[in-house]
Amino acid sequence: MQGKKPHGDTYDRRPAMPSARLPPLPASRAVEMGGAREEVMPEDTHGPDRSKIDMSKDDEVKYWMQHLGVTRDELQKVVDRVGTSAKDVEKEFGF
Fold this sequence. Notes:
Blueprint: E1 30-33, E2 36-39, H1 58-68, H2 72-82, H3 86-92
Antiparallel strand pairs: 1-2
């Protein structure tokens, strides 16, 4: 069988290419379902909810401080008074 070509006309002497697979998902981001893994998408994949102001998230607080031109304390006082609705907070600051 020496010299016999396995498939096709020529031998393929190129090195095998590494698999294009992605690394495995962390356990907290994957769910085992019937033996197959499916990625669980985080809830905030579409960006922050601009209809609410979440004072526990620094990036959102910075956004609202810049947008409204106020300090963190001023923003916190208004959120405490009128709630987390962005429209209500904007109205309170005259927007």
